[in-house]
Every structure is written in C-alpha cells, then in structure tokens.
Write a structure and sequence with these properties.
heterodimer, A: 192 residues, mainly alpha, B: 239 residues, two-stranded antiparallel ribbon, 7 helices, 2 strands, globular
Amino acid sequence: MKNICVALCIALTFSVNKVYGSEAGMPQLDPEFWPAQVFWLIITFSVLYLIIWKIFLPKITYSIENRKSRVVNDLDEAQKLKESAEKKLREYNQIIENAKKEAKKIIEESRKKLDQDIENKKHKFNNDMEKELATIEKEIKELKKSSITNISKISAETSSEIIKQLIGTEINKSNVVAIVEDVLKKNVNKHI
Amino acid sequence: MQQFEVYKIGPEINLGGINLSFTNSSLFMIISSGLILLLLFFGTKKKSLVPSKIQLITEMSYTFVAKMINDTAGSSAKTFFPFIFTLFMFVLFSNMVGMLPYSFTVTSHIIVTFVLAAFVFVGVTVLGFVKHGIKYLELFVPKGVPIVLLPLIIIIEIISYLSRPVSLSVRLFANMMAGHTMLKVFGGFVISLGLLGGWLPLGFSVALTGLEILVAFLQAYVFAILTCIYLNDALNLHH
C-alpha cells in the first residue's frame, strides 16, 4: 500500500513536471542545499530541544503534578471529612442508643422498685391483718371460754340457790356443779 | 514542484567549502520552532489550577506524549521524554505549518526526515549497546525459532533493523510530499478547468486539505511512536 502510494506520488511528480515543464526532477533529490538543511536542522532542533527540556517541561510537569496532588489532597480531605462525619454519626447513634437503654433501665428499675414496694406493703398489711385477726380471735376465744366458765359458775350458783329456795336445804354443791356442767356440755355447742 | 524548491535567503554562508546558507527551509524550521515555543510560553505562563484553553493544549500534548512513551516503552523511557516530546512537536508543527498556502514543508524533504530518523537510529543503537553490551545483538535472534531457520531469520532481522531509519524517514517524507503534490495538482486543475468545471477539483482540494491535516498529525504521531518502539527494543530487549 505504501509502495503504491510512493510510486503514485513519484508518477504524479513526473506528470506534473511534464504539465508545467518548469524543472526537472524532485528538488528533494538535489544535494545542493543538503548540508545547509542538515546544518540548520541540527541548530534549530538542538535549540528547541534545550529550551523545551530546560525551561518548559519542568513548568508543565510542575503544573500537572501540582494539580494532581491538589486533587489527591482534596479527595483525601473529603474522604477524611466523610469518615469523621460518619464517626460522629455513629457516636451520635451510640449516644442515643445508650440513652434509650438507660431510660429503659431506669423505667424498669423504678417499676421493679415500685412493685417491690407494693408487694412489701401488701405483705406487711396482710401480716398485720393476720396478727390482728389472730389476737381478736384469741380474745374471742378467751371471752368464750371465760363466758362458759362464768355461765357454768353462775348457773351452778343460781341452780343451788333455786334448789335452796325450793327445798330449803343446802345440797352438795359439787353435785350441782357436775350436773350443770353436764347440761352445759350438752347445750353449749348448740348455742355457741 | 516549485513548492519544494529550496532557495537561499540572504548572504551565502560558506564554511570550509560547504554551502551552509540560510534557506527558506531553515526559515520554516525556525518558524515551526518559534510557534512551538510560543505555544509553550503562553501555555505555561499562568499555571492555574483550572487550565485556560492554551494551557490545556500544552498539557494535553504533554500527557499525550507521556502516555505514548509509557504505553510503548515503559517507565524506564521517561528519561527520553524531552527528546521525544520535542521530536513530536517539531514534526507536527513542521507538517502543520506546511499546510498553509505559500509556506514550505520542512518535513517534505528527505534529507531532513532522514537526519531525524538517523539520529534516532544511531541514538537507539548506541543506547542499546551501552545498556546491554554485546547482548544487544540478541535482538536479532528471536526466541522459539527452529535452528534451521535461524540464519535466515537473523539476516532478515538485521536487514529490517538497518532499514529502520530509511522506512522512518521515507514514510514521513513521502506522505508529506504526496499530499502536497496532490493538493497542487488539484489546485492546478481548478485553474485550468476554470469557472465551469473547476468546482469538482476545488471540492477535492478542500477534502484533501482536511485529509492532509489528519495525515500531518498522524505522521508526527507515527514518527514519535516508532521512536518509542525502537527505544523500547533498546531499553527492555524483549522481542
């Protein structure tokens, strides 16, 4: 392909030369100015090379590196900020979580305390009540007992008195007591 | 062929019997170099964080060449970045300046491209021998080739190596010359066919100008990338 191109261009060159008929051959192949061209090429290129190498490339490198490092720094900083923000958020969440837990605990504790208190009070109240009841019962029992003996005594006395009045003689007191007690025993359960 | 004519400007300079006169070729070399320096000067003047357009162009050409070197020759070729950058810019600007009417295309002369290519060739060869010593000759012995074929392959490799400067220089020179000649031929047709039939070649001329600008860039790129590839051979010696 390249060869065809070159051949074509050379053919074109000749045809154009024939058309215009100005000069013979290609000026490129005329060695008259070769040394001059080489000489000036070397000078120009060397000067250009030195100036670009020593002056301009460091500037461009500096500029590009500067931008790159700036961008990297900015990104780093952004990353850092993001991380710290996330940390803060986590901390904040933690605090809220802790506060919630604490509140729950406090509520729980107070409730327990209250329950305990209520329970204690109830217990104490029950105890007291029971004690009270027991004493009352005891009192009642005593009362009952005393009343029975009193009754038996009174009834024995009354019976002996009645008998004395009825028959005019004193009878054996112990006999009367025994009978009264017997009767009482039979009837006491009926009434009390 | 008038556009390829070299003529001297100013007095004749003669050094030891050799004619080193300042010519239009020299003038356009200096113009190209001046344009490059101008671009770089304005491109690096401000060094702002957000680049201006001209700074962007400079930095883009910088990163373009840097990436090209990195991709083809590896990071060890960074030392040669200034040279390849200069080479690329010089060829590119010479080609582009040559696209202007009535200007002279420095790179359309075989002697100019050949000197550039020969310098690259000699430089790369010297570098290869300095870096690898006699082992650099292993470049001509590809791995995994049957012994029977080896002599033939070595001869072919040597010929291909030696023809590098020729192919490098002829490629650039021929492309530039062919393009400019074509432009001139179609331009001539426009004149000779006149107002009646000249429109078709005029259209061709316009299209060819666009194509030539592409070729101007492409050839500068090819020149630079081939230099990188040769450099890679010399530096890394893998085949």
